[in-house]
């Protein structure tokens, strides 16, 4: 990788940093310098925030053919071109990263590709994932790498195919999330949570039930899956049976009322979601400096926290992310009850942790 020579804004000392880095701690004065990533999502908007909540009337709108998109990014985000090739040479680390912009729609998102870029850089540089074991799906890719419903479903099966003890798997999704009535009595709140592929108006959404079946149930003993989902209504998107209440510092039961098995085949599934099932997630520029670079709020603070403290525990990570979000919400004068009534949908929500097994969040390190 080619590195950029960056000078500290405080003391002027030079440091080499990756070209995709958005922050750097000076080795001389220990101050943090924030940088705008060179690769940015196009078509900036005057609004600082675009919130991930497509209007319900969109479901009734006529589905038009998607326009052919020309990627504004230098080269492809993918370093993988064949799922079968990767399966035959797979390492014990594998990741699926999906960033959906809905580029031709009025409810398009601006930060999802930036999110994927940041997550991929984090996996490679900090958690040592081989680039060839990371599958990226965006509208700027081709063929099986476009995030259609069929392609995402097939890629979820690719992620867990042939998994064995010692494997670490990551599923990341940045895009719209919705919910719909649950008719199987396996949701305590009466709603199934969903993620929206690029063609969801035509082909439908991907339900939490399907995600659980595709990547949770197949996990064998010794396999660990982390799902990081930056979308609205994503709290229990994997239907995991334990949800951690950060404010009460305790695990709560999320077992389905129907009694259906939502567990793994012996492995461990952990999910970090952008918000509770009934909340909205933000696609925002509030964390950036200078230019209005859009990112998913949860993804940005997650990556920043892990880079600042590589040995962080799950509990400390939730504390750090919660503190960062509270600071942003306070800065935007949204803490008063009056402001909350006026701008209630613009409050950035706290992330949520769920798991197939209970564990001590204050001692277990966050390792992807």
Automatic annotation (TrEMBL):
Domain of life: Eukaryota
SUPFAM superfamilies: Caspase-like
Sequence ranges assigned to domain Peptidase C14 caspase in this UniProt record: 93-355
Gene3D superfamilies referenced in this protein's UniProt entry, alphabetically: 3.40.50.12660
Family named by the database record: Belongs to the peptidase C14B family.
Name by which UniProt lists this protein: Metacaspase-1 isoform X1
Organism: Ziziphus jujuba (Chinese jujube)
Organism lineage string: Eukaryota, Viridiplantae, Streptophyta, Embryophyta, Tracheophyta
Gene name in the database record: LOC107421552
